[in-house]
């Protein structure tokens, strides 16, 4: 009997026969107790009766695939004699069960460095039907973010999901896949689950340092604390992988100031300030190396070079090569006679080094 047969469906049965006559051959029928089936007996005359097995309750093959009933025929004699037969009713499967996953949500984690072909998850569904009704295939229905479905492949038979590309924590931190299992019944039925893939950060990004504002050249007489440059430092990684420390070399006469006292998280603004008085005549151009190092293991480092020229200040007086010149002059020397050539130098530059003698 088909699993989807509706209650009230009737199925004819072959009746019994009795070789006696009269009341001894008058037959009555009973059916062993069953919540799914009843017996309907119709009499055309006292010796001819039609039997029907009537479905009283819907069948469920997945609960009871086979029903076994006993049909008893009793005659009207004294004492009454009986005959029995067993009814073996097989329930023919209908595609009334969709595939069911053993989990509604699969939560997995993978590092962003996972290689192409890495197994992401192994989803598993079952279908209690039988035959082609229980045969099903898997597919990736959709993904969040949209457009990332091609990053994954699924084995249509086993439900094994693998990477078909590379993950990037800095691009997408959580992938959600909608998986569908569809059976081959008529009509086909489907079950669904989701796979949530959390991408774990790997220290694959070096810190970056760049200049947002630069005031050069720096006046030689600039005061200590003068801001020479504004810098930004960032690292696209997260956690300790994105925690950055910065320093400048040489350590003098410039230094860095920041809100986090030398330890910058993800993104920060720094100020390059003057920590010691400048002397252009000693060092006219300063070449600085700014270094940023993150807290990953192994640590990654980014560097940049700053060239800072010093603008001259008139901080040096002209210096004669002698403090006293002694000259002898003949008493009768004419006017205009060259007595001495004086020489002074000034280590400044430009107009600050132009000398006039009075």
UniProtKB/TrEMBL annotation:
A cellular component term, taken from the record's GO annotations: plasma membrane
SMART domains in alphabetical order: CA (SM00112)
Keyword NAD applies: no
Membrane spanning stretches: none
InterPro entries from the UniProt entry: Cadherin-like_dom (IPR002126), Cadherin-like_sf (IPR015919), Cadherin_CS (IPR020894), Protocadherin/Cadherin-CA (IPR050174)
Limits of the Cadherin domain: 1-101, 102-209, 210-320, 321-357
Localization (cell): Cell membrane
BP GO annotations: homophilic cell adhesion via plasma membrane adhesion molecules
Pfam families in the cross-refs: Cadherin
Major location (coarse): membrane
PANTHER family: CADHERIN-87A (PTHR24028), PROTOCADHERIN ALPHA-4 (PTHR24028:SF133)
Record's keyword terms, sorted: Calcium, Cell adhesion, Cell membrane, Glycoprotein, Membrane, Repeat, Signal, Transmembrane, Transmembrane helix
Protein's gene: Pcdha1
PROSITE patterns: CADHERIN_1, CADHERIN_2
Gene Ontology terms, MF aspect: calcium ion binding
Protein known as: PCDA1 protein
Membrane topology: Single-pass type I membrane protein
């Amino acid at each position: 009997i088909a699993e989807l047969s509706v209650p009230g469906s009737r199925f004819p049965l072959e009746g019994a026969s009795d070789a006696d006559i009269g009341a001894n051959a008058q037959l009555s029928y009973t059916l062993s107790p069953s919540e799914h089936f009843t017996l309907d007996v119709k009499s055309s005359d006292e010796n001819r009766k039609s039997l029907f097995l009537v479905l009283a309750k819907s069948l469920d093959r997945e609960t009871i695939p086979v029903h076994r009933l006993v049909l008893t025929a009793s005659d009207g004699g004294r004492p009454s004699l009986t005959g029995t037969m067993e009814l073996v009713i097989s329930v023919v499967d209908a595609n009334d069960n969709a595939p069911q996953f053993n989990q509604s949500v699969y939560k997995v984690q993978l590092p962003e460095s996972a290689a192409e072909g890495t197994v992401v998850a192994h989803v598993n569904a079952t279908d209690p039907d039988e035959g082609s009704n229980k045969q099903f295939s898997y597919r990736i229905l959709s993904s969040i973010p949209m457009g990332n479905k091609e990053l994954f492949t699924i084995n249509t038979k086993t439900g094994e999901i693998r990477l078909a590309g590379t993950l990037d924590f800095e691009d997408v931190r959580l992938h959600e896949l909608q998986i569908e299992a569809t059976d081959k019944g008529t009509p086909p039925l489907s079950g669904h689950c989701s796979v949530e893939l959390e991408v774990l950060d790997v220290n694959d990004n070096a810190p970056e340092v760049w200049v947002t504002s630069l005031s050069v050249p720096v006046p030689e007489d600039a005061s200590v604390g003068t801001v020479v440059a504004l810098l930004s430092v960032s690292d696209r990684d997260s956690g300790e992988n994105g925690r950055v420390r910065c320093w400048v070399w040489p350590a003098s006469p410039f230094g860095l100031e920041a809100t986090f006292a030398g330890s910058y998280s993800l993104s920060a603004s720094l100020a390059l300030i003057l920590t010691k008085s400048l002397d252009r005549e000693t060092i006219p151009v300063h070449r600085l190396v700014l270094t940023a190092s993150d807290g990953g293991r192994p640590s990654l480092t980014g560097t940049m070079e700053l060239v800072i020229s010093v603008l001259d200040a008139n901080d040096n007086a002209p210096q004669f090569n002698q403090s006293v010149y002694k000259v002898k002059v003949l008493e009768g020397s004419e006017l205009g006679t060259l007595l001495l050539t004086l020489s002074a130098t000034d280590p400044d530059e430009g107009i600050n080094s132009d000398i006039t003698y009075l």
